[in-house]
Design brief:
The protein is α/β, with parallel strands linked by helices and 743 residues long. Among the domains are: 3-55, Phosphorylase Kinase, domain 1; 138-334 and 582-603, Dimethylsulfoxide Reductase, domain 2; 495-563, no CATH class; 615-742, Barwin-like endoglucanases (Beta Barrel). It starts with a strand and ends with a strand. The structure holds ligand MGD (2 copies), iron/sulfur cluster and molybdenum atom.
Length: 743
């Protein structure tokens, strides 16, 4: 008899509700859950492929231990013993500083990892952290920390109510939205237009999102900050700066006129490749709309001026009075607060940056991390403080990090590399031990971090579809075991329940000391005793009960607990976003810092950019609906068909380079060269070429049969590792100077 299970898709921020049919332990169908209160029947082809991922014969279900160039399957105790055998001498000789962790993107989406990455770090004592965050949203984190006092206090477009949306560097037609969690973004873009509003897309490529909008404004990569400053300049000159209710909550607005004075539309038009007339119109339309929102995403982060651009997105929303107002840019209020959003103790007196520097290139730390491109040299460069051991958690930096070739050459130099991952891929092939996590269907799900930037408030719990087969540990147990081993315990003696209790009790204890928290001055022992279970469920129960809609351990009988949430299989809708100022602010004076000097100090670098000519083709990245970063190319039904790893190039540039549609091209940068198929299209603006990221599965050491047949090429071989956005250290993978020639 077929059974039906409801589950949330964890692949992207849309968090779609799925209805999964299982017959004899096999997924036989995945359809949208039309009753899901959040996604209301929306789904994309990736969600429908969760069954293929679950049944993928290449997905690891048993730990692998490397023996020279061979892998052997190991039991869990053997695998952990091997970790201990390799890691112990490194720590004994060089201390825990010789050990680094790399945390990848699926961590944010995975029930175990999202909760326990935050436990793993303090329990293990690891100090060197790298993550996909510095090839992603680090500029946003710097901006949010500096302006609002929380690195994850990132406002989200109120897309359901806005009447004017200016989108820069995002293509939700492929990505489904990012730092803007909602299903069916394109449907919502249509709805803005249907209610008489306007949508403008600023992007070097006429994307499918731009096609759906009212206007496409092509922009030279990396110049969004200049465009936004010029828009600000117009608002200042035309006396349209009108922050309204925000004046009460903000300081530093008066600094803005001086900061943008030199950036007139005429001063930036050549650099941005956008006419002064268009820039004026963009600014005036934004300020004239009854409500409006500026939204910038990866194209405005992964670039030379990522922090300035991300800051200016906030500034424009503030000076037009659109922050924290319906139809503008608002703060979500997640039912389950993510531990990642709690301010680390080292920043108790406010955020500072560059407290210490990386060993090899002297890169300043930003929010506790160095640019991910430092990882390769920190491993490869001999000397005191060298990284000798690495733990990767759900990450594939050998593909996703800039200067990927350098990292690929550095990883084999590690004395110990452990990967918590479901595949033998470009990164994990270098590991000594691979510890497989669960498939998305083998674990329950309840989102936390992602709800922090959702366009409505809500909560959703879905039980696992399949039990995790014995004797496989859940990923939170794997992380705790690794923490125990790194912390000095013998592998066979690590008791994950003890560590879980230790972390949980510590967390509860800390919350009872936070003034204003529901648990303030409550008895920690009683709270712990009143929270049943273990692992992510217990953590979720605590954070749900103490969250904004929680029952508060006896304070509100109607409030949410995990038990109560489970009675809503299609999720609970907690309503549209509501104004949250000033309560959401965690700056020292509870005001928005509109012009943080740490960020505005970077303006001279932008001024210099205006003087620089543009004689080279610039490379940008793109995504595709049927793929997810680097790791879903092993699902035949998602990858078959026309080659998607192609170089998009404008006809005039194709002519100059001597390449033709369907032919092959060599793309070269200062970091490396790759060969790809050419797709000539006027959807690119002249002077800019585009490649997808996440490809390059041609190594014969990976165990992904399908991906190897659709290998493509890795565009991060072209991204020079030293190119970073200065204030955040975020990688510049958009706007790389390249040469294109016939292969
Ligand atoms: N050129 C260029 N580079 C980019 C980008 C770009 O736009 N252009 N985008 C950047 C961005 S935004 C990001 S987020 C990064 C992503 O960078 P990464 O996070 O390093 O890369 P992913 O491709 O997401 O790799 C995820 C890994 O997790 C494994 N995995 C998947 N699910 C699970 C799970 O449930 N448990 C465990 N344990 N493992 C799992 C997969 O097998 C894979 O190895 O790439 C960045 N790199
Ligand atoms: N299907 C699918 N969905 C995904 C992912 C995936 O790999 N596949 N990855 C997920 C992840 S980890 C993330 S972070 C999100 C990212 O979500 P998005 O931010 O929507 O990412 P992209 O779809 O890559 O769109 C980025 C756009 O920026 C443009 N761009 C490049 N450089 C510049 C520039 O300098 N200025 C401007 N204005 N535009 C520029 C590119 O042409 C591209 O159209 O997507 C998530 N969702
Ligand atoms: S849009 Fe697709 S990948 Fe994203 S959550 Fe929905 S079904 Fe999953
Ligand atoms: Mo990302």
């Amino acid at each position: 008899m077929p059974e039906t299970h409801l589950h949330t898709c964890t692949l992207c921020e849309a968090m779609c509700g799925l209805e999964i049919t299982v017959e004899e332990d096999r997924v036989t169908g995945i359809r949208p859950d039309h009753e899901d209160v959040w996604s209301r029947g929306y789904i994309c082809p990736k969600g429908a492929a969760l069954g293929d991922l679950h049944h993928d014969p290449d997905r690891l279900r048993t730990p692998l231990v490397r023996n020279g160039s061979e892998w052997r399957e190991a039991t869990w105790p053997e695998a952990f013993a091997e970790v201990e055998r390799l890691i112990r001498p490194v720590i004994e000789q060089d201390g825990v500083d010789a050990l680094a962790a790399y945390i990848g993107n699926p961590t944010a989406h995975n029930y175990s990892l999202s909760r326990y990455a935050g436990a793993f770090v303090p329990l293990s004592g690891i100090t060197k952290l790298y993550s996909a965050g510095t090839v992603d949203q680090w500029p946003k984190n710097v901006v949010a920390a500096s302006m609002y006092g929380g690195m994850w206090t990132i406002p989200v477009p109120d897309i359901d109510r806005t009447s004017h949306m200016l989108i820069l560097g995002a293509n939700p037609a492929a990505s489904q939205g990012s730092l803007m969690a909602t299903p069916d973004v394109l449907g919502k873009i249509d709805a803005i237009r249907q209610r008489g509003g306007k949508v403008v897309v600023v992007d070097p490529r006429r994307t499918a999102t731009a096609e759906r909008a009212d206007q496409w404004v092509p922009i030279r990569p990396g110049t969004d900050a200049a465009l936004l400053l010029a828009m600000l300049n117009v608002l200042v000159t035309e006396e349209r700066v009108d922050p309204q209710h925000l004046s009460r909550h903000a300081r530093g607005i008066e600094k803005l006129p001086e900061l943008c004075r030199a950036f007139t539309p005429e001063a930036v038009e050549q650099t941005c490749a956008i006419s002064a007339t268009t820039i004026r119109a963009l600014a005036l339309e934004l300020s004239a709309a009854s409500n409006a929102v500026v939204y910038g995403r990866i194209g405005t982060c992964n670039q030379e001026f990522g922090t300035l651009a991300s800051w200016l997105v906030e500034v424009l929303n503030i000076v037009t009075g659109n922050l924290d107002r319906p139809g503008g840019s608002m703060f979500a209020n997640p039912a389950v607060r993510s531990l990642a959003t709690m301010r680390p103790p080292e920043f108790a007196d406010g955020f500072t940056f560059g407290r210490y520097k990386s060993r090899v290139r002297g890169a300043p730390e930003v929010l506790g991390q160095y640019p991910v491109s430092c990882l390769a040299e920190e491993i490869a460069e001999p000397g005191e403080g060298r990284i000798r051991a690495l733990i990767t958690i759900a990450g594939n930096p050998a593909i996703s990090a800039p200067d990927a070739g350098k990292l690929d050459r550095a990883l084999p130099q590690l004395d110990c590399m452990v990967s918590l991952d479901n595949y033998v891929n470009e990164t994990t092939r270098h590991a000594h031990v691979i510890l497989p996590g669960a498939s998305a269907l083998e674990q329950a799900h309840c989102g936390d971090l992602i709800w922090g930037w959702s366009v409505r408030n809500g909560a959703h719990y879905s039980p696992a579809v399949f039990d995790l087969p014995e004797p496989r540990p859940a990923e939170w147990q794997i992380l705790l075991t690794l923490a125990g081993i790194v912390g000095g315990q013998k592998a066979e003696e690590v008791d994950t329940d003890v560590l879980d209790d230790l972390f949980f009790t510590g967390l509860v204890d800390a919350l009872t000391k936070v003034e204003g928290h529901v648990l303030y001055q409550r008895d920690a022992g009683e709270i712990v005793a009143a929270t049943a279970g273990r692992g992510p469920d217990r953590m979720t129960d605590l954070l749900l009960r103490t969250g904004p809609y929680g029952e508060g351990y006896g304070k509100d009988a109607e409030g949410l607990s995990l038990e109560r949430l489970k009675t809503f299989p299609h999720g609970v809708d907690l309503g549209p976003l509501e104004p949250r100022l000033p309560e959401v602010l965690e700056t020292i004076d509870s005001k928005i810092d509109v012009a943080p000097s740490y960020i505005t100090d970077d303006l001279p670098r932008l001024s210099k950019r205006l003087a620089r000519g543009d004689d080279s083709l610039l490379l940008v990245s793109r995504r595709h609906l049927r793929s997810n970063n680097s790791w879903m190319h092993n699902v035949e039904k998602l990858v078959r068909g026309r080659d998607r790893c192609t170089l998009l190039i404008h006809p005039s540039d194709a002519d100059s380079a001597g390449v033709t549609d369907g032919g092959r091209a060599t793309v070269r940068s200062s970091a490396g060269a790759i060969e790809v198929a050419v797709e000539v299209s006027d959807e690119m603006m002249p002077g800019v070429v585009s490649l997808p990221h996440g490809w390059g599965h041609d190594s014969d050491q990976i165990r992904m049969q399908v991906a190897r047949r659709y290998a493509g090429a890795n565009n991060n071989l072209l991204a020079p590792g030293e190119m970073v956005d200065a204030p955040s250290g975020n990688a510049v993978v958009n706007g790389i100077p390249v040469q294109v020639a016939r292969a």
